[in-house]
């Protein structure tokens, strides 16, 4: 058996060396040092079959070690990953990218590379498998880099509180980081995970019997597991155990010597046929179809809620209908899962219909993430990859704490819904630390992220519908704490927010000079007030809940809405609006400094968000 394990491990090493040398770029150290653990894991423990729902999940949090992952997957012959794919490693358009990119067809469960994202997202995977009632395990390979990132602390404490006994963290304990030895910069990770409440196991990462014993113990654990494998990075090269072999350090000439030492052909990418697993056809499990979205049912529920809001109008914040809508949807769709970072009621993400997920009961539909914004975002990503529709709330200003998770969602083309409330200076007396200024524009700069800022309860319902229907783009749902007027008075079966901008109140065409006021969120109600009081102008009000969707519309539609003189209003950084300015006399009202403590009314007065000031901006 050990000969088989040794050949498999050395094949991982050989292919990893070849891939990096062919690309003239990449990391060889970790693939060489952790290959023995990979060999035992794949040959004796992990159920690796991307076509099965009840497979084990393997997440390479240490994404720089991607050659090890690609080489191992190729050797299993369980996916479409080919030897040609390995040869194109790190090349333009290659399937084998420098850091793993989500590709379930070849067995890559998620995009990793930014340190900490994998180990934190694994928590979401583990919750998802619990929700599905599967006995499968989530294995996550991590190094010192991921464990030094703060999100690992957030995520692992959450895993402990939920007692995710299906989560097994495999730590490549090689004591090496780019700048030297990890022990110079970090803490005792064994003691750390013991303090979390994990079951901790130590093993020699180059001794097959020791590796096997450790993984056997991990299978039987009744709580999350942390296995520390003591390894030598770059093993068995002369420089092994030092940071000199973190990246590419083995030349093509030395690679031939390694291959001969392994008993393989000296030709790059050649592997003995007997090392490869026998190729098996994989059948897609029908379980994956359980959570298919009924779009007609969704639209019917959203329209019923819209009708209810219009029939019984009330002056409320835009955060309040959020909980109403999601609460109703959770009753009908078992794959919608809510949550918040210790702000369930402040963000109105919870309703009387929601049931909290606990360590002893995963039948619920709501996660109390506690004050772990970054881990919450990562866990939501794991849930989304597994077919759930997660939404989770915090304040807009704290989106900065979870930005790497939002970016990773956009990179992976998955669609969690980040509910971000307290969206402007109207937060008031909480002061500058809680008043978002640059966050809206900052989020809008991110590719493949829909930033939606609805103006009222009806728009909230429509934006949530759009967020759920789009399964390849995450959504940042931006909501107010302050109350707003109900600007939508007439029920429409169609979703007016679908085009990103739409005419809320049209011109009177009475001969007066025309001007369009374009606003988002609570500022739309302000625009409607200006329309009523600006007697010298014919005013049209345009609501712009999602600029990303508007940018996707036809040239004709965009030109029509942006024709003529315009005033743009938003309580945030104005820079994003300049791309819509088409005339010298177009005016943009935004905020270019941090806010201040004071009431919302005082701050609106100070920064010019009043009817009186806006009239001055328009009138000569």
Mind explaining what this structure looks like?
The protein is of the alpha/beta class. It has three domains: 2-267, 3-Layer(aba) Sandwich (Rossmann fold), CATH 3.40.50; 291-478, Rossmann fold, CATH 3.40.50; 500-618, Rossmann fold, CATH 3.40.50.920. It contains 21 helices and 18 strands. The chain has helices spanning 2-23, 29-45, 66-76, 83-87, 117-132, 144-148, 150-161, 189-196, 208-219, 252-262, 295-311, 319-332, 373-385, 403-412, 439-444, 457-469, 523-533, 547-551, 555-561, 600-607, 611-618; strands at residues 57-60, 138-142, 167-173, 176-177, 180-181, 199-204, 225-230, 336-340, 366-368, 389-395, 417-421, 450-452, 475-478, 502-505, 513-519, 537-543, 566-569, 587-589. The strands form four sheets. Strands 9-8-10-11-13-12 form a six-stranded parallel sheet, with helices on both faces. It has a five-stranded parallel sheet with strand order 1-2-3-7-6, with helices on both faces.
Low-confidence stretches: none
Strand content: 5-15%
Strand line-up across the major sheet: 9-8-10-11-13-12
Quote the distance from N terminus to C terminus.
Answer: 87 Å
Quaternary assembly = single chain
Annotation, overall tally of beta strands = 18
- Which structural class do the helices and strands define? alpha/beta
Q: How many H/I helical runs?
A: 21
Number of structural units classed as domains:
3
Radius of gyration: 27 Å
| CATH-level-4 superfamily name of the largest domain | Thiamin diphosphate (ThDP)-binding fold, Pyr/PP domains
User: What's the shape?
Assistant: elongated
Largest sheet: 6 strands, parallel
The CATH architecture term of the largest domain is: 3-Layer(aba) Sandwich
Query: CATH topology of the largest domain, anyone?
Result: Rossmann fold
